[in-house]
Amino acid sequence: MSGKLQAETRKLHPFESLEQEAALNLHKTADRLVAMSNEVFKQTALSPTQYNVLRILRGAGEPLACGEIASRMITREPDMTRLLDRLEKRGLISRCRPQNDRRVVATSITPQGLELVGGLDGPVDALHKRQLGHLGAAKLRQLIELLEEARSDPG
């Protein structure tokens, strides 16, 4: 079963280490999953990152500060302000400064944003099933555990 990436990339020599082969397999797989996701989001002109923000705000059920949104993101976003600006310009979120702390900018999802993200629930669920459903429950649990362990601090 192993060695598929070597064949896919037409690499003539074995990988330098198992760690390298595993890391490159993760990158190749992530690239494929992102490409599939982009196809679903293209119809709404949302990026996966923008969709993530809308899901976070919907799930929070209350306005959140920019830093709190950033800490809940799946992928790191270096320019949250610009990301939120684009969503606000489309009417999908709104921002205001609470009276009790004018230093904070609170971000909320708008009814239009709720409608858009709600309309994506079914397609995104179908996407995830198409991406990984063929692995089955036991392998998915194992994959989740391995990925969580890989992200943990080894130190």
Textual characterization of the structure:
With 155 residues, this protein is mainly alpha-helical. The chain has a single domain (17-150), classed as Orthogonal Bundle (Arc Repressor Mutant, subunit A), CATH 1.10.10.10. The protein has 7 helices and 3 strands. It has a 3-stranded antiparallel sheet with strand order 1-3-2. The two termini are 31 Å apart. The model has no long low-confidence stretch (mean pLDDT 91).
State the helix count: 7
Number of domains: 1
| Low-confidence spans | none
- Would you count the extended β strands for me? 3
Strand content: 5-15%
CATH-scheme architecture = Orthogonal Bundle
Shape: elongated
- Rg calc: 19 Å
Q: Please name the fourth-level CATH homologous superfamily.
A: Winged helix-like DNA-binding domain superfamily/Winged helix DNA-binding domain
Structural class: mainly alpha
Series of secondary-structure elements, N-terminal to C-terminal: HHHEHHEEHH
List keywords for this structure.
elongated; 155 residues; mainly alpha; Arc Repressor Mutant, subunit A; 3-stranded antiparallel β-sheet
